[in-house]
Each structure stands twice: as C-alpha cells, then as structure tokens.
Design goal:
mainly alpha; elongated
Length: about 150
C-alpha cells in the first residue's frame, strides 16, 4: 500500500513547506503584535493611575496634560491596539492561513509538514530507540504524518 504523499515531488513538498514556514514567521509576528497590544494597554492604565496620584499631590497641570493628551490616545491614526490587531488578523493573517490551507490541500494531500517528515525520515538513525518514526504505540501515519 502506498504511503500518503509519496507521489508528491520533493520540490513541491519543499515549496509548500516554505509557504508553511512563512506562516510560522507571521504567527510569531502576530504574537509580538499581541504583546504590543498588552504592553500599550498596561501602560495606558499606569498613566491613568499616575494622573490620579499627581492630582492627589496637587500637580494638576501635569495630570491634566497627561489625561488630555495621553490617556486613551490612539496609537495609530484612529486606532487603539485592539483595532490594529483585528485589522492585521482580517487583512493579512487569515488570508495567509487560507492560502496555506489551500496549498497543503491541493499540493500535499493535506499533509501539513510533508517536507519536514521527509527530512526526519532521511536524518533519523533507523533502529535507534530515540530515532523512532512515530511515538511508541502509534501506528505509522496515524498522527497526520505520512511517513
């Protein structure tokens, strides 16, 4: 019986792998975007606390300036960070995910990491207990991997 993905050329598996790798980098960038979102949100809350403390100490000019100019300020034109995240998700992240899914479905029989699975098979030491094809007790290919 043929293994899943065995008739797919290595060049196609590698190209689709690069598409998936690009998504991995975008996922990392998205994580940084969420960090940015949380850091700016926390900074805004701290500024609000600072404004209250400055007012209590009688420094109303500085407190008023911070409250008026900085607390609740847009980080980019017309947007808070949550809006930046939402726009990124809808205009870049999700469309790329859709393209990755299409490439995998149409070109690698739906196998997500075919190139990496082939690399593992080529690089592992057959017969070595720490170089097994699949986790112990799992049938080959049952974890979504073809080899």
């Amino acid at each position: 019986m043929a293994e899943r993905g065995e008739n797919i050329p290595d060049s196609t598996a590698e190209a689709v792998g690069k598409v998936g790798e690009a998504l991995e980098y975008v996922e990392r960038a998205r994580g940084h975007l969420y960090s940015f979102h949380q850091l700016i949100g926390h900074a805004d809350l701290l500024l609000g606390e600072a404004v209250d403390a400055l007012r209590e100490d009688g420094h109303t000019d500085i407190a008023d300036a911070l409250a008026t100019e900085m607390v609740g300020r847009n980080v980019v034109n017309g947007r808070w960070t949550f809006q930046v995240v939402e726009e990124f998700d809808s205009t870049y992240w999700q469309p790329l995910r859709d393209h990755v899914d299409r490439a995998r479905t149409e070109l690698t029989d739906g196998i997500a990491h075919l190139h990496e699975a082939r690399m593992k098979e080529d690089r592992r030491t057959h017969g070595h207990p720490d170089h097994t094809k699949e986790p112990e007790g799992r049938e080959p290919g049952s974890g979504g991997h073809p080899l």
